[in-house]
Amino acid sequence: xxxxxxxxxxxxxxxxxxxxxxxxxxxxxxxxxxxxxxxxxxxxxxxxxxxxxxxxxxxxxxxxxxxxxxxxxxxxxxxxxxxxxxxxxxxxxxxxxxxxxxxxxxxxxxxxxxxxxxxxxxxxxxxxxxxxxxxxxxxxxxxxxxxxxxxxxxxxxxxxxxxxxxxxxxxxxxxxxxxxxxxxxxxxxxxxxxxxxxxxxxxxxxxxxxxxxxxxxxxxxxxxxxxxxxxxxxxxxxxxxxxxxxxxxxxxxxxxxxxxxxxxxxxxxxxxxxxx
Length: 276
Ligand SMILES: O=C(O)c1cc(=O)[nH]c(=O)n1[C@@H]1O[C@H](COP(=O)(O)O)[C@@H](O)[C@H]1O
Hints:
Number of helices: 13
Shape: globular
Domain Orotidine 5'-phosphate decarboxylase: 16-256
Number of strands: 8
CATH topology: TIM Barrel
Strand content: 15-25%
Catalytic activity: orotidine 5'-phosphate + H(+) = UMP + CO2
Bound molecules: orotidine-5'-monophosphate
Helix content: 40-55%
Number of domains: 1
Radius of gyration: 18 Å
Largest sheet: 8 strands, parallel, barrel
Organism: Arcicella aurantiaca
Structural class: alpha/beta
Pathway: Pyrimidine metabolism; UMP biosynthesis via de novo pathway; UMP from orotate: step 2/2
EC number: 4.1.1.23
Strand order of the largest sheet: 1-2-3-4-5-6-7-8
């Protein structure tokens, strides 16, 4: 998917919501456990209830890998089910020496090889240029590079000062722009770091940012939107648990749909206020 197509969808749905499919067999409603594929059945109902309010879906790959071969099958079926207009993110946080990264890229981008055809994959920058660029060989596919993450441990490395007093995450954003343009590269910035967004926009004014951490992690959608939005929105704000486990009863899909709609209504307000 191109950047323009993503922005078109945002304008159409008046939303920049990404629903995180962090589907945990131990958390889904009990009544689904009799299904042949409970994980897919849960995702199917969540997608049906939320797709009119969401522009993207982000299956977190750990939740599927933990189920072994069955999990990959649920993931493949989920990918087939997600409406074609939606942007898809393999939240896999990959990155390795070049030839291995090439295989990771095939795993998520090359349908003929793996059966999966994601639009994007999250990548850790720690191993540098040759660990990231193999993902960029696939046209219209995106790398979403971890920059400033939402978790407490982000400060252990990401905020370290370099010789020129720049922080490590700032150098990740600067250096990675030598590898790809904003047509193929996004950054992860946690919603819990909204106070840094004005500064981050000086480093990456045009890029889309994937912003997890609203909902269960307590980040503010209003602050993220106010400080992070640019002229083509430039934001995909993810909520996983806050939507998919809003109810863990038989009405889970209906309640997830209501939660997604609440977020969309708020986003519509911010698009009117802050789209520059
Ligand atoms: O790359 C991510 O998606 C990610 C980066 C980050 O900094 N923080 C973060 O929470 N995430 C992911 O975003 C999702 C957040 O889930 P909730 O806190 O339940 O909304 C999880 O799948 C996390 O793995």
